[in-house]
Specification:
The protein is mainly beta and 274 residues long. The chain has one domain. The strands form 7 sheets. It has an 8-stranded antiparallel beta sheet, covered by helices on one side. A 4-stranded antiparallel beta sheet has the order 16-17-18-23, with no helix packed on it. Strand 17 and strand 18 form a beta hairpin. The two termini are 16 Å apart.
Length: 274
């Protein structure tokens, strides 16, 4: 079963950098990608489960993926770091990595000013920039027509997830509004290849394999360069979670686990068939 999260407007998926209301200066900017980090999905699901009284913690999930359905075409895409997508379109696998990039029209640049919440006034000198992705325009460009449905797709194995159908929640940078739709299945022919859909938190890796605990998985870059980065696992109340070594998504994976690395229950290291 799946949940489709559709932003009701442009949305920002920040993957790091200097964009923060905690930084001062004439302008601060960060790194923005076409799909969210697992921590963004986890936070949204936790909010949804608590608000709907389904539990204090969301179930494990896999993804994220980009899904869209038009009159004649369906597409299912994974993140191809950086600023790219690998897409299955009507059962045909294509590399759409050049569709999205930082200079493209799919992003809207917006300026923000940090606020003093207690005083309800602006902070002097705290200006930041967000790049807001227009997913409707992006999926329209790939499909060649306006989509009937589209959004960020996650796979989830929990019957309670059906109760989230129609729920509206804050999502992504700036807590933009999004709506959840429940999907029993995704009607698209898979091509039988498995790819890393979200960053994998690992201990070590090279061009051919990654290592975590006592496990290993073979990787193949195909059209992608194998990229490792240090990533924060997100935030909890009053604290930032640790920064760990991560393999970036878009890499083909060979193993029998269905996931790689640590923190799979929170979406990290998701391996999906595209």
């Amino acid at each position: 079963m799946y949940l489709l999260i559709r932003p009701l407007g442009s949305v920002a998926f920040r993957w790091g950098g200097l964009s923060s209301i905690l930084l001062s200066g004439p302008m601060s900017s960060g790194f923005f990608e076409p799909l969210p980090l697992p921590s963004t999905i986890y936070g949204a699901l936790k909010f949804a489960y608590i608000m709907n009284k389904l539990g204090d913690e969301p179930p494990a999930f896999k993804g994220p993926m980009l899904y869209a359905e038009g009159t004649e075409k369906r597409l299912l895409c994974i993140h191809s770091y950086s600023l790219g997508l690998k897409c299955n379109i009507n059962g045909q696998f294509e590399d759409c990595g050049k569709i999205v990039n930082v200079s493209d029209d799919f992003f809207e640049k917006r300026i923000g000013i940090a606020l003093e919440r207690n005083k309800k006034s602006a902070k002097t000198g705290y200006i930041y920039m967000e790049k807001m992705l227009d997913i409707f325009r992006l999926t329209s460009s790939i499909l060649g027509e306006a989509p009937k449905s589209y959004g960020i797709l996650i796979e989830i194995n929990d019957q309670n997830a059906k109760k989230l159908d129609g729920f509206v929640l804050p999502f992504g940078g700036e807590s933009r509004v999004a709506k959840i739709s429940y999907m029993e299945d995704v009607d698209i022919k898979r091509v039988g290849r498995e790819f890393l859909a979200s960053p994998a938190i690992i201990d070590d890796g090279d061009e051919n394999q990654i290592i975590w605990e006592n496990r290993r998985a073979s990787i193949i870059s195909s059209a992608n360069k194998v990229t490792y980065r240090l990533l924060s696992l997100g935030f909890e109340i009053n604290r930032r979670l640790p920064i760990r070594l991560a393999l970036m998504p878009g890499i083909e994976i060979y193993n029998d686990y269905g996931y790689v690395g640590y923190f799979n229950d929170r979406g990290w290291g998701s391996v999906v068939e595209i």
